[in-house]
Amino acid sequence: AQSVAQPEDQVNVAEGNPLTVKCTYSVSGNPYLFWYVQYPNRGLQFLLKYITGDNLVKGSYGFEAEFNKSQTSFHLKKPSALVSDSALYFCAVRDVQAGTALIFGKGTTLSVSS
Amino acid sequence: DTGVSQNPRHKITKRGQNVTFRCDPISEHNRLYWYRQTLGQGPEFLTYFQNEAQLEKSRLLSDRFSAERPKGSFSTLEIQRTEQGDSAMYLCASSLYPGAGNQPQHFGDGTRLSIL
């Protein structure tokens, strides 16, 4: 069965410091991986995706993510956090062989302090 | 560039009533998805359409739930005989298939359903 784990409910970081939000996944086939961000009372905004190719993927707002097949991980990173990055972040996976539905993790709340 | 639009944004109803939500996808998108999100959880897939055809339904979609996309444009999600457990945010997403590469799903702001 497909699954996504986000082991941290909350990540706290000071403005200007690097941030990492962790994600591990489990699929039977090849994964398509995604990160989305959600602000209060809003839908999800797409940040970036990994389909194939370079393991380091760059996305919106200075975010990037590294795909690690051996560790089945897809951690979200940013070199320098902003207060405005504070939000709820979701990792999602799609098993290429299993259908089109996205399987989401439970989400990680990122809090950036000034 | 208009995004995915969902109406209403909020719906409060009494248990046992029927409710219907509407989703207008991004105009050129042929795939439309419905998800449900409860507090503290990530979205859970309910169903998706390619054009007007409903191609996949989750086991979460009980027989009280029905979704339509009659002309391959907007979609409606109806819940009959609502129950307390139906209280959630209902999210709609759309994407272009096949598109260039694997196109991401773009989400609307959701309809928050509260059952009294």
Helix-strand blueprint:
The complex is a heterodimer of chains A (114) and B (116).
Chain A: E1 3-5, E2 10-14, E3 19-21, E4 24-26, E5 31-38, E6 44-50, E7 56-58, E8 64-68, E9 73-78, E10 87-95, E11 103-104, E12 108-113
Parallel strand pairs in A: 2-12
Antiparallel strand pairs in A: 1-4, 3-9, 5-6, 5-10, 7-8, 8-9, 10-11, 10-12
Chain B: E1 5-7, E2 10-13, E3 19-24, E4 31-37, E5 44-50, E6 53-57, E7 65-68, E8 75-79, E9 88-95, E10 106-107, E11 111-115
Parallel strand pairs in B: 2-11
Antiparallel strand pairs in B: 1-3, 3-8, 4-5, 4-9, 5-6, 7-8, 9-10, 9-11
Main sheet attributes: strand count, strand direction, barrel closure of chain A: 6 strands, mixed
**Head-to-tail CA distance between termini of chain A:** 41 Å
Task: Give the biggest beta sheet of chain B.
Answer: 7 strands, mixed
Number of helices of chain B: 0
Please state the average pLDDT score of chain B.
Answer: 93
Estimated structural class of chain A = mainly beta
Computed Rg of chain B: 14 Å
Which structural category fits the helices and strands of chain B? mainly beta
Unreliable parts of chain A:
none
Tell me the helix content of chain B.
Answer: under 10%
Distance between the termini of chain B: 37 Å
Key attributes of the depicted protein:
heterodimer, A: mainly beta, Immunoglobulin-like, 4-stranded antiparallel sheet, globular, B: 116 residues, mainly beta, 7-stranded mixed sheet
Question: Can you give a write-up of this model?
Answer:
The complex is a heterodimer of chains A (114) and B (116). Chain A is built from no helices and 12 strands. With 114 residues, chain A is mainly beta. In chain A, the strands form 3 sheets. In chain A, strands 2, 5, 6, 10, 11 and 12 form a 6-stranded mixed sheet that branches. Chain A has a 4-stranded antiparallel sheet with strand order 3-9-8-7, with no helix packed on it. In chain A, strands 1-4 form a two-stranded antiparallel ribbon. In chain A, a hairpin with a 5-residue loop joins strand 5 (31-38) and strand 6 (44-50). The radius of gyration of chain A is 13 Å and the shape is globular. Chain B is mostly beta strands and 116 residues long. In chain B, strands 2, 4, 5, 6, 9, 10 and 11 form a 7-stranded mixed sheet that branches. In chain B, strands 1-3-8-7 form a 4-stranded antiparallel sheet, with no helix packed on it. The termini of chain B are far apart. The relative contact order of chain B is 0.33. The model of chain B has no long low-confidence stretch (mean pLDDT 93). The chains are: A mainly beta (114), B mainly beta (116). Chain A binds chain B through residues 4, 32, 34, 36, 41-46, 49, 51, 90, 92, 99-107, and chain B through 4, 6, 31, 33, 35, 40-45, 48, 55-56, 58, 91, 93, 101-102, 104-110, 112.
